[in-house]
Protein backbone atom coordinates (compact mmCIF):
# COMPACT_ATOMS: atom_id res chain seq x y z
CA UNK A 1 0.00 0.00 0.00
CA UNK A 2 2.84 2.42 0.77
CA UNK A 3 4.45 1.79 -2.64
CA UNK A 4 1.17 2.63 -4.42
CA UNK A 5 0.77 5.83 -2.38
CA UNK A 6 4.37 6.87 -3.10
CA UNK A 7 3.84 6.25 -6.84
CA UNK A 8 0.68 8.37 -6.76
CA UNK A 9 2.51 11.18 -4.99
CA UNK A 10 5.38 10.98 -7.49
CA UNK A 11 2.94 11.04 -10.41
CA UNK A 12 1.09 14.04 -9.00
CA UNK A 13 4.42 15.82 -8.43
CA UNK A 14 5.55 15.08 -11.99
CA UNK A 15 2.26 16.39 -13.38
CA UNK A 16 2.57 19.56 -11.30
CA UNK A 17 6.16 20.17 -12.43
CA UNK A 18 5.21 19.46 -16.05
CA UNK A 19 2.30 21.90 -15.93
CA UNK A 20 4.55 24.56 -14.36
CA UNK A 21 7.12 24.14 -17.12
CA UNK A 22 4.38 24.31 -19.74
CA UNK A 23 3.05 27.55 -18.22
CA UNK A 24 6.56 29.05 -18.21
CA UNK A 25 7.06 28.08 -21.85
CA UNK A 26 3.71 29.63 -22.75
CA UNK A 27 4.84 32.93 -21.18
CA UNK A 28 7.66 33.14 -23.74
CA UNK A 29 5.91 32.03 -26.93
CA UNK A 30 6.43 33.58 -30.32
CA UNK A 31 3.45 35.39 -31.82
CA UNK A 32 1.53 33.28 -34.33
CA UNK A 33 1.60 36.08 -36.93
CA UNK A 34 4.83 38.04 -36.39
CA UNK A 35 7.04 35.49 -34.67
CA UNK A 36 7.89 38.21 -32.11
CA UNK A 37 7.69 37.39 -28.39
CA UNK A 38 4.26 37.40 -26.77
CA UNK A 39 3.82 39.08 -24.37
CA UNK A 40 5.85 42.16 -25.35
CA UNK A 41 5.60 45.91 -24.89
CA UNK A 42 4.93 48.31 -27.78
CA UNK A 43 3.50 51.82 -27.97
CA UNK A 44 0.59 53.52 -29.68
CA UNK A 45 1.57 55.09 -33.01
CA UNK A 46 -1.14 57.76 -33.25
CA UNK A 47 -3.22 60.06 -31.06
CA UNK A 48 -6.42 58.15 -31.82
CA UNK A 49 -6.51 54.37 -31.36
CA UNK A 50 -9.71 52.38 -30.96
CA UNK A 51 -9.61 49.49 -28.49
CA UNK A 52 -12.14 46.93 -29.70
CA UNK A 53 -13.90 44.00 -28.04
CA UNK A 54 -12.70 41.60 -30.73
CA UNK A 55 -10.29 41.36 -33.66
CA UNK A 56 -12.29 43.12 -36.39
CA UNK A 57 -13.79 46.51 -37.18
CA UNK A 58 -17.23 44.97 -36.72
CA UNK A 59 -16.56 44.59 -32.97
CA UNK A 60 -17.69 47.39 -30.68
CA UNK A 61 -15.13 50.04 -29.62
CA UNK A 62 -14.58 49.76 -25.86
CA UNK A 63 -12.19 52.67 -25.49
CA UNK A 64 -10.44 55.33 -27.57
CA UNK A 65 -6.84 56.11 -26.64
CA UNK A 66 -5.84 59.68 -27.39
CA UNK A 67 -2.13 59.69 -26.63
CA UNK A 68 0.53 58.62 -29.12
CA UNK A 69 3.46 56.92 -27.41
CA UNK A 70 1.40 55.33 -24.65
CA UNK A 71 2.87 51.89 -23.82
CA UNK A 72 0.69 48.80 -24.12
CA UNK A 73 1.46 45.11 -23.75
CA UNK A 74 0.71 42.77 -26.66
CA UNK A 75 -0.78 39.57 -25.22
CA UNK A 76 -2.01 37.84 -28.42
CA UNK A 77 -2.01 38.10 -32.20
CA UNK A 78 -4.72 37.31 -34.75
CA UNK A 79 -4.19 38.18 -38.40
CA UNK A 80 -3.75 42.01 -38.48
CA UNK A 81 -4.99 42.47 -34.92
CA UNK A 82 -3.16 42.53 -31.59
CA UNK A 83 -4.74 41.94 -28.20
CA UNK A 84 -3.27 44.54 -25.84
CA UNK A 85 -3.40 45.42 -22.16
CA UNK A 86 -2.79 48.91 -20.79
CA UNK A 87 -1.33 49.97 -17.44
CA UNK A 88 -4.82 49.98 -15.88
CA UNK A 89 -5.36 46.36 -16.94
CA UNK A 90 -7.91 47.20 -19.65
CA UNK A 91 -7.71 44.70 -22.51
CA UNK A 92 -8.93 44.66 -26.08
CA UNK A 93 -7.94 44.44 -29.73
CA UNK A 94 -6.04 47.03 -31.80
CA UNK A 95 -5.20 47.06 -35.50
CA UNK A 96 -1.47 46.32 -35.83
CA UNK A 97 -0.80 49.37 -38.02
CA UNK A 98 -1.70 51.62 -35.05
CA UNK A 99 1.13 50.15 -32.94
CA UNK A 100 4.83 50.98 -32.95
CA UNK A 101 7.82 48.95 -31.82
CA UNK A 102 9.18 52.11 -30.16
CA UNK A 103 9.66 51.41 -26.47
CA UNK A 104 8.06 53.78 -24.03
CA UNK A 105 7.12 53.42 -20.37
CA UNK A 106 4.87 55.08 -17.82
CA UNK A 107 6.38 56.29 -14.57
CA UNK A 108 4.72 54.51 -11.63
CA UNK A 109 1.11 54.52 -12.90
CA UNK A 110 0.15 52.59 -9.77
CA UNK A 111 1.02 55.54 -7.49
CA UNK A 112 -2.05 57.07 -5.85
CA UNK A 113 -0.17 59.95 -4.23
CA UNK A 114 -0.47 62.92 -6.60
CA UNK A 115 2.45 64.69 -4.89
CA UNK A 116 4.85 61.74 -5.25
CA UNK A 117 7.72 62.32 -7.66
CA UNK A 118 10.32 59.94 -8.98
CA UNK A 119 13.91 61.05 -9.55
CA UNK A 120 15.51 60.78 -12.99
CA UNK A 121 19.24 60.67 -12.37
CA UNK A 122 22.33 61.63 -14.37
CA UNK A 123 23.66 58.05 -14.19
CA UNK A 124 22.45 54.62 -13.10
CA UNK A 125 23.04 55.13 -9.39
CA UNK A 126 21.01 56.24 -6.38
CA UNK A 127 23.90 58.61 -5.60
CA UNK A 128 23.85 60.35 -9.01
CA UNK A 129 22.55 63.90 -9.38
CA UNK A 130 18.85 64.30 -10.02
CA UNK A 131 18.24 65.78 -13.50
CA UNK A 132 14.43 65.78 -13.24
CA UNK A 133 11.62 64.77 -10.93
CA UNK A 134 8.88 62.91 -12.76
CA UNK A 135 5.26 62.63 -11.67
CA UNK A 136 3.39 59.34 -11.83
CA UNK A 137 1.93 58.75 -15.28
CA UNK A 138 4.59 60.60 -17.26
CA UNK A 139 5.41 58.83 -20.55
CA UNK A 140 9.14 58.29 -21.10
CA UNK A 141 11.02 57.08 -24.16
CA UNK A 142 13.09 54.04 -23.24
CA UNK A 143 16.56 53.97 -24.83
CA UNK A 144 17.98 51.03 -22.88
CA UNK A 145 17.66 49.01 -19.67
CA UNK A 146 20.28 46.98 -17.79
CA UNK A 147 21.10 46.15 -14.20
CA UNK A 148 17.76 47.40 -12.82
CA UNK A 149 18.08 50.88 -14.43
CA UNK A 150 16.66 52.30 -17.65
CA UNK A 151 18.05 55.17 -19.69
CA UNK A 152 15.02 57.27 -20.60
CA UNK A 153 14.14 60.64 -22.02
CA UNK A 154 11.28 63.05 -21.52
CA UNK A 155 11.37 65.82 -24.08
CA UNK A 156 15.03 66.85 -24.32
CA UNK A 157 15.93 65.64 -20.82
CA UNK A 158 17.87 62.36 -20.69
CA UNK A 159 18.56 60.38 -17.55
CA UNK A 160 18.18 57.13 -15.67
CA UNK A 161 15.31 55.79 -13.61
CA UNK A 162 15.00 52.57 -11.67
CA UNK A 163 13.37 49.87 -13.76
CA UNK A 164 10.91 48.90 -11.02
CA UNK A 165 9.38 52.39 -11.24
CA UNK A 166 8.35 51.92 -14.88
CA UNK A 167 5.39 50.20 -16.52
CA UNK A 168 6.41 49.25 -20.04
CA UNK A 169 9.51 47.17 -19.30
CA UNK A 170 9.61 43.77 -17.62
CA UNK A 171 11.53 43.21 -14.36
CA UNK A 172 15.20 42.59 -15.17
CA UNK A 173 14.51 42.95 -18.92
CA UNK A 174 17.53 44.05 -20.94
CA UNK A 175 16.56 46.63 -23.58
CA UNK A 176 19.13 47.70 -26.18
Q: Any overview of this molecule?
A:
By secondary structure, this protein is mainly β. The protein contains one helix and 16 strands. The chain has one helix at residues 2-27, and strands at residues 29-30, 37-38, 40-44, 49-52, 61-65, 71-78, 81-85, 91-95, 99-100, 104-107, 117-121, 130-135, 139-146, 149-154, 157-162, 166-167. It has a five-stranded antiparallel β-sheet with strand order 8-7-6-3-9, with no helix packed on it. It has a five-stranded antiparallel β-sheet with strand order 15-14-13-10-16, with no helix packed on it. Strand 6 (71-78) and strand 7 form a beta hairpin. The longest helix has 26 residues, at 2-27. It is globular and about 50 Å long.
Amino acid sequence: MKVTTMRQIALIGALFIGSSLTAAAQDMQAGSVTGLPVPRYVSLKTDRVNLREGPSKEHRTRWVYQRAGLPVEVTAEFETWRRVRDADGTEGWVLHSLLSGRRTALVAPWSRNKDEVFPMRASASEDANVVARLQAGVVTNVASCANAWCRVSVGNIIGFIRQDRLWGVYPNEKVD
